[in-house]
Amino acid sequence: MHTGVILFYLEDKGYGYLRLEGTREEFHFRKKHLLVAAVKKGELVRFKLRQGRQGYYADEIARAGLG
């Protein structure tokens, strides 16, 4: 699992981006990749990286500290 910070999440569009903690790497995610109802800008999260057709994306996103 990786730790990162939500850069933004557009709930009405169902996607967002997060930044891997301690780096400048940013990853896309979709609503279906969230393990929580919603996330907010600046929120600390834990996630897995998966390889997609267009590169890596964040998956299994949960708030950091919630197991």
List the helices and strands and how they pair.
Elements: E1 2-10, E2 15-20, E3 26-30, E4 44-52, E5 55-63
Antiparallel strand pairs: 1-2, 1-4, 2-3, 4-5
Describe the 3D structure.
It contains no helices and five strands. The protein has strands at 2-10, 15-20, 26-30, 44-52, 55-63. It has a five-stranded antiparallel β-sheet, with no helix packed on it.
List keywords for this structure.
67 residues, five-stranded antiparallel beta sheet, 5 strands, globular
Distance between the termini: 11 Å
Largest beta sheet, briefly? 5 strands, antiparallel
Number of strands: 5
- Side-by-side strand order of the widest sheet: 3-2-1-4-5
Count of helix runs: 0
Outline of the structure:
The protein has 67 residues and is mostly beta strands. The chain is 0% helix and 57% strand. A 5-stranded antiparallel beta sheet has the order 3-2-1-4-5, with no helix packed on it.
